[in-house]
Amino acid sequence: HPSNQAKASSQDCVFVTRYVAFVNLHPQSSLFPHARDMSDPSVCLVYGSLLQTYKPFVTHVTPVPLLPLLLMAASRVDTNEDFSLLIFDGWIQVMLTQPMLVVAPLLRLTYTLRWNLLVRQDATVQRIFSGQVGDGGQAQEESEDLWESTDVDWGNKDLPDSVPRDLRLVFSDPPQPMSESDLEATLIEFFEQPLEYAPQSLTEREYEAFRKQPGDDTNHKPGQQQEGWEGVELCPWLHFNTIYSTISVEKSLASDQIAVSWECPTCRKTFRFNRRQIAEHKKECGKATTQDGEGE
């Protein structure tokens, strides 16, 4: 949680999970003394279990980079129309600051890594149930039959023109098979690469507010609904243009904490503010406008 650094002690530090809003790090964790240092929003804690005693604790935790983990593990990823906003599994929102030229290769790499891992996972399950274990099974895993016999088909998509060209190039061709050693090395590099983004958690109601519905126009303005929207499934886990770039914080669906892209009607500048920050800016911007008018 971003506020952990300001906490008085580790026992006051909180973390956000999908099903329990605020949890604490278990005192017996080796990371407990360093809980106050875990305020970097680009790092998350992967935990083994959630222990409920007099308050909820997470145990068996490991810090990992947030965005690479989300890209590799999320079962559903929703994006807006220019891929600047992503929502993972309906509760973690990430605003990307890199242009599409940077994002597209990252998506292609994610696409390839996830496909390779899934194919190997399926092959392992098949070997277990067929009794093929040991060196013979390992040899089979590395053989060409592994790729030829797989049912995991993500490529050759006939994507519509509404999908940006860079994205069509990413997902039009099938992923390329990787050897086990190349896969391991690439995964390490993938998790270590520097990325610029701004994450925040969403409630279920906020996710529903961001989701587009059939009949909504792609050039959406908060509060307006028009005809002509259709999202695109780029691959089984990635859904393009299924969320809005922003929502109105005046809606009851938005909590006080959520930050959205907001354009001030007075100064015409765009900010990423929550409801309180918007109110403060309106007040200050109004004062500045009044003072400028009096000075003329």
Automatic annotation (TrEMBL):
Residues 22-74 form the DEAD-box helicase OB fold domain. InterPro entries: DEAD-box_helicase_OB_fold. It holds the Pfam family OB_NTP_bind. It comes from the Eukaryota. This is DEAD-box helicase OB fold domain-containing protein.
